[in-house]
Fold this protein.
Amino acid sequence: MPKVIVVTSGKGGVGKTTTSASFSSGLALRGNKTVVIDFDVGLRNLDLIMGCERRVVYDIINVINGEVTLKQALIKDKHCDNLYVLPASQTRDKDALSLEGVGRIIDELKEGFDCIVCDSPAGIEHGAFSAMYYADEALIVTNPEVSSVRDSDRILGILAAKSKRATEGAEPVKEHLLVTRYDPKRVAAGEMLSVDDIQEILRIPLIGVIPESEAVLQASNSGTPAIHLEKSDVAEAYRDVVARFMGDDVPMRFTTAEKAGFLKRLFGGR
Amino acid sequence: MSLIDNLLDYLRGDTKKTAVVAKERLQIILAHERAGRNASSPDYLPALQEELLAVIAKYIHVERDMIKVQLEKHGEYDVLELNVMLPEDKRGA
């Protein structure tokens, strides 16, 4: 049974697109035929993060308007065999993203794909709503920071009230908390909300913790989803997230600060 | 934070970490916002606001954002609050 997964957060800049890119790549690496859709009409960026920006010819609005077929608009990912990208339109009006049109695309994608990942824009406007409406599951990307936690709570409220599943009285959307940009050292110092705090406040199951890392910028610089970066914490953390999503029992990592060595403690440094 | 600041905080007994403050603030504001959500401001509220605005506009010239219709929960009661800000020069006329 194909799954529609929305990556959403309410707040901008918390790591939705970074997560969409790595999560969809991870699903594909595990053998799932996967498509990742950019819903941020007018501000498309998933193509840059995936490194396929120069191969964009058609976009989701072209498909909705019936100007091209879905097959013509899908871009094959250069890192994974099982992965395709459906870009957002950079020029069209975001109202062109009709709920009915999105529904048609998702139904068609369900014929050929196992996982359909929807990268939501920030906010709670039309684009974010169309990204979440058809979701079966949701990754709620949250930073350990008050405004992000509050916005995530708002998004959870909307998912529970206005998604297709909610309006049709079906089984509710399955929610997963993904904490990103986490810095265990600052948590230990009492300067940052802990994963436990965030979970206690939002009351949804935790699917993973992505540590704050310089690797994320390096990944976006080169147009390579962070999950492909060898030997980086971020890549490992995203692989764990995908494994848990697939049902593997993987213990949480990157939630506690590494003990600094004696010399480091003596001479300081971060 | 300098050593002196830390020492002063310690002497004042003022050692509450900001993460604790963040958590408390979130718990309070989210409890409030969730209550508002679950009392589910009914679907008719926007329409009611529009119609009230139309009626009031028949008699007084008021701007759209000068009228607020809110449903609040006070214990066992739901209170429907209508708040119209009258324009300065028309007041008492």
